[in-house]
# Entry
Amino acid sequence: MTHNATESTPYVAQWGILGCGWISSEFAKDLCRSPAGRGASDISHAIVAVGSRSQAKADAFVAEFVPRGAAAQVDGLCKVEPRGHGSYAGVVNAPNVHIVYIGTTTSAHYDDARLVLEASKHCLVEKPATLNAAEWADLSTLAKKQGVFLMEGVWTRFNPCFLAIEKAILHDNVIGDIRCIYSDNSLDWHNKKPDSTRMLSAEQAGGSVLDLGPYPLVYTMMLMYRHPKNGLTPPAQVGSTMMLSRTGVDLASSVTLTFPQLEAIAYLTMNSLSSTPKQLHTRIVGTTGEILIKGWTSRPSKFWIRRLVDPAEGGVFLEDEEVDCAFDEFGLCFEADAVARCVRDGLLECPRLPHEDTLMTMGVRKQGGYEFLPGLEKVK
Ligand SMILES: NC(=O)C1=CN([C@@H]2O[C@H](COP(=O)(O)OP(=O)(O)OC[C@H]3O[C@@H](n4cnc5c(N)ncnc54)[C@H](OP(=O)(O)O)[C@@H]3O)[C@@H](O)[C@H]2O)C=CC1
Ligand SMILES: O=C1OC[C@@H](O)[C@H](O)[C@H]1O
# Structure
């Protein structure tokens, strides 16, 4: 065992947070929840530094979300008090910070991640990690050179309901051989939110495929690309259709990925014109049945198994079996727990989301031809 853990006390991850926007507040709130409540006794979390471009905003964030720190501070496992910083550099250079969560807007991710890695701190950067594959490859090389952990924050890969779906398909074989994934992730923000909103803004590198696309891709990457019979073979074909908005980002996109070794295909859709129904966002079809998934695409919470009466005939199903995996947490704590364990164990990449997977999905996201504003991409 390394760092501060012993047989009887959990390893405490000492986090710094960059950016005091919405998702950082959800991250902070989740880290305040007792890990014991989700059955985790080997790790806990402290939030020791919070950074904003404004000192007042950082101080207000600390006062509102982490006045006493996160779970480990409240439980007396970490004596460091949380502190607000009026710059991101203040956080990455704070000696008590071991891991930095980047919750800044997408166009800032690459520069912020470089700042973290150059300070030799471990790094969890929100999705989409970067604007393109070249930027991600550059960060990956830097993290390895510095000997620090780096991961894209795709929380769905660590969601308990997603884990149950993965087990049902890959281990328990409940739908037979996987054939098709239909997955949608859409939010009807067009003409309802200002064009300066993160997903609609070209300056912030918004757009459906970058902002919404990572989640339908989770189902594809984990259930097809990582399917044992696929042997990590990249999709043979990646097709994409895009409609651009008046701001220049993609208003609507579709992505199709083929996996000939599995005789399987994924049809993914994402747009800012409609909202995905919580009743059904993803349908996974196999040779002996289907799985229908409820909740948000990024935060599944319940699913139905629908078995064919006669797989040779098709068309007629037995009564649906409901699997309820509802949980109280927002859900970012599950990826934070995984990151804490990796750092504790000295890993530089997370086995459930290695650098290579992010590299591949960054490539997929580029297929449709949406061009960023000049200067946004730092590496091409
Ligand atoms: N995992 C998930 O479920 C989710 C992930 N996300 C991802 O998180 C990131 C942030 O999204 P969200 O929290 O909704 O966005 P917000 O706009 O609420 O927050 C983004 C923060 O980024 C910082 N920032 C740095 N540079 C800029 C800039 N040039 N313009 C605007 N803000 C800037 C600001 O922090 P400050 O002013 O304090 O410096 C701001 O508060 C995005 O990359 C998004 O894709 C978003 C929602 C859900
Ligand atoms: O990352 C996010 O942004 C887009 C939303 O679809 C999703 O729920 C959220 O997690």
Remarks:
- The mean pLDDT is 96.
- The chain has two domains: 11-155, 160-327.
- The pocket of LJPVP2WV (ligand 2) is lined by residues 185, 187, 211-212, 296, 298 (CB under 6 Å).
- DSSP finds eleven helices and 14 strands in the chain.
